[in-house]
Amino acid sequence: MSVSALLSSDHDPIGDLAWELGDHQSAQKRLEQVYAADDGVLRQWLREPKIVHFLLEQVRDKKFIEKIQWSAVGAHTESWNLKAVPQSMRVRMWNSAWAARRLGHSVAISNWLTRGRELGLNWVFEQDSLYPPTATADVEDVGLEGAYALMFPEQANKMFIDAWRRISSQDYDAVWVWSPRVKVAMERKMEAGEVERMPVLGWWEVVSGGK
Q: What domains are there in the chain, each with its CATH number?
């Protein structure tokens, strides 16, 4: 049985993972759900940068594309929910190649960083994912956003644990992520006792109304 056949609609609701794995037929069937989804469900899906990238490549409806761009990561820097922002915390940024490089959101992410500093967050952003990692940089693209972790689970798990240990060994109060898939994977590994616990903050959790 192929890896794509093991994907549930919950894990791959839009079909971006199936598409990456070469199962374009399943991907297209799942993609059809997008047009029937209500705005609340769609906003939840659009929290994931890789899903946004996939939809912008596959969808041709201009109005729908505008809706995708409006809801996607990097928007709404003006509407942060102050109650959700942990004041004066030292927060480690977990890079997302999909958000910064593939979607070209480096400027929007910079705006988010500026807004966070204004609200009291002490960001730690050691390696911009727009540039190749150096020998001393934290390498954080460990395959959790895409299908790599499904195809090579042992390798992906080792890379994640190594990266997490580097981060948890330093004096951070929380980790900030741009990907819901990454957040879920991190929390599952913490729950299983594979890595040290640390609060994980998602960008969508500090936007008023949960957009």
A: 4-71 (no CATH), 77-210 (3.40.50)
